[in-house]
Structure of RNA helicase:
Amino acid sequence: MAPKKKQQQKHKSSSSTSSSSSKPKPQSSTGPKLQISAENENRLRRLLLNSGRSTTADPLHEDNINNNLTKAQKAKKLHSVYEKLSCEGFTDDHIERALSHLKESATFEAALDWLCLVLPSNELPLKFRSSTAGLPNDGGSVGIISTARDDWAPLPDSSVATAHEMEEISIKSKVQRKVDTLDSFQQSQADWIRQYMEQQEEDEYESWEDTAVDEAPEPRNYEIICEEYHSARLQAINAKERKNKKGQEQSGQIIRKLKQEMAALGISVDTLAAEFESRHRVVENKNIEDVIGGEDGCMESTVEQDVSLSVPSQDGSVADEDSGDIELGDMFLEDSSSDQVLPPEIVELQKKEKMKELTSEKNLEKLEGIWKKGDPLKIPKAILHLLCQRSGWEAPKYNKVQGTRDGSSYTVSVIRKASGRGKNRKVGGLTTIQLPTPGEAFETAEDAQNRVAAYALYQLFPDLPVHLMMADPYASLVLQWLEGDLSGDVKNTEVDRRAGFVDSLLKADVPDAVLSEDLLDTSGQTDSQISHAQEDKSSRDAGINKIAESTDYHKQVESSYLKKQQESKRKMKKYEDMLKSRATLPIAELKGEILRLLKDHDVLVICGETGCGKTTQVPQFILDDMIEQGHGGICNIVCTQPRRIAAISVAERVSDERCESSPGSKDSLVGYQVRLDSAR
Ligand SMILES: Nc1ncnc2c1ncn2[C@@H]1O[C@H](COP(=O)(O)OP(=O)(O)OP(=O)(O)O)[C@@H](O)[C@H]1O
């Protein structure tokens, strides 16, 4: 909160400008400028829309916007919320409970609030779990000043929760209370911010409308597209022959649309042309001869070239015939598969397309230096070793799976380097991979290791045609996994479930009884109201358990690795010196108490002088304790800072104190994420 003084000065100097303007002008250089992170902006938006004068108007405003959305738009919105929550690690059952409660007005934030408030900590995804509360502390420069509120109860309504949040902020932050509330700003500025936020909110909803209106139509039969494509091509040739520019343009447009339609299905025009020509070669030749009297080949290719060069890609640029179509296809493939059930022949073509792309010359070149066509085939272990080496990773390690009675089964662990920057950044760190059928055992250790290595190759290098350089039976195994992936069975089941749920929700048939029920009761009563959720519960549960088991296993491996690493670090002189200097900070005295309280309570408020060690030390107390107890693999700590410089500097300091090279590096447990940059 350091920059408040500056902000207030800024407000003062610009107050006349902003009060004279009734319309929000976010870009104006004279108006107040908001520079906050996306996360804080969302939080502020929620606070503002539910605060002060607007408390009566804004919920209605939100409702009004919701009422104005069509069913398709609402469905799209709900799908997106469902998907985002799923990505955050919530189970489908939990998501459906939250959405059933919030109904059509559900937003991602509201659903997240609801889930975190209602679900018991141990049912939340790991990163949302906590364990803590506290005791009054007497004296010293650092004190634990508050525990979880005794009167706290989950609030199903997110707007009420937000109001309480504000109240809590004003009670707990003893200093500068006024600055934290909107009413402390000059009235005109408060109005400006409110209007700005409302405008943003409207834009957001409008974008829902836009995207929903642009919904892709049902995929058409492949044969029909083929026929249309062929006749459009003939028309184009014909028009060109007769120098009919208009006719040429019209057929060009039809061909462009058909190409886009194919691209949307993930099929390149090459496939379309090849497929069709192979089936209709005789007819085509005859037709073309009839139309242009023997100059077909040359003429046709000229027209085709003209047309293909002008096919615009999604971003408005001109698509390249060879590579552009494939990329375009991939981009659309995601959309089409998530929203539509494709006809089997299209799925088949998509598979072919994907395999063609995977084994393309471009991808084969990526294996240069390791293998080329004609070289002898290798075993998966050797390939994995080579590819890890080339990526600058450590050599893969094979570990026997505990408890395999007959034969053997192995996991393989790889420590990957973080790579890329910003959006393209790929997280590094330890990855432990095991076969999709974990219990399976094999006769020899070598065979077991090769199988898991093949699976690791398939998982870690999905864009390399590793099966081409691999000896059987492992190459066939990889092909099977690829086939399974391409058929999209799993995805479709998920999509069906979500679509079914969103549909049932929008039919507004969820009886009010569900909503009035005690939502804190997680015994399954609420679930029983949602008939859809019951249908394949047992098979889903089995799936979830399986995932949980394998996740547990990976976490265990990571935990023991971290423990060993920590033990060896303790022997380092530099680390020892750092520990000594950290021990002189005022907060060090409270380490034991903080850890003890965190074990039993969900919320702990620590208050202390600047520089006493709250930011750099408390997270390390928790991390070190978790590592020492062998739970490092499940420990995720998030520490927020109000400014990007502070965030980076704290991360660097903590990384330094832990004797790591830098945040986000291979050996580092510390990272940071600020807008447009991250090191993780
Ligand atoms: N980048 C740094 N370089 C050197 N020392 C640092 C750095 N950051 C923190 N420290 C040291 O660590 C101590 C604890 O800092 P820390 O940021 O944890 O305090 P804090 O209690 O969180 O302070 P504040 O309330 O201002 O956030 C500081 O007193 C300082 O000695």
